[in-house]
Amino acid sequence: MAEMNMNKNAEWLRKMAKDEANAVVSVGGLGVELANAHSRRQEEGDPLNRTVLAKLVEFRRRSLGMKVEQLADAAGVEVAELLAIESGEVSSPEGRTMFQLAQVLKLPPKKLMQLSGLTNVRDRRFDEAALRFAARSKPVEALSKEQREAMEELVKIMVES
Prior knowledge:
Blueprint: H1 10-19, H2 29-44, H3 47-63, H4 68-75, H5 79-86, H6 95-105, H7 109-116, H8 124-136, H9 145-160
Helix pairs in contact: 3-7, 3-8, 4-5, 4-6, 6-7, 8-9
């Protein structure tokens, strides 16, 4: 029996769905592949989101003039856990930790949960702002004007959504 030739390009399928006013597009095996890939990303954590989360927590802490120990104490989390988050080593932080950090850092908990991989809400503006933030963030002592603007843009979109 000849193997059926399927288009397995996810972008093409999204374009077709958009062109068809989001009508149903049969994806067959691709649907299973995409679901499996999503499950793997959830288990392993999205490296880009980990980077954005790490830099956002670090930059926000620094912009508030807090030391790591001060933020950990105020949020009721272990210093080691906070250091792991800020370094991008944590692939799946606890929801309680993200909620408490959001409170102290004055960030919307839902968006921080999204960055941490605990929720899966897709927001194109938020994703694009997070990508720009990750691209512009570099370790320095003081936040540059560009880093501050990128962080403030991301926080603004987080608060608006």
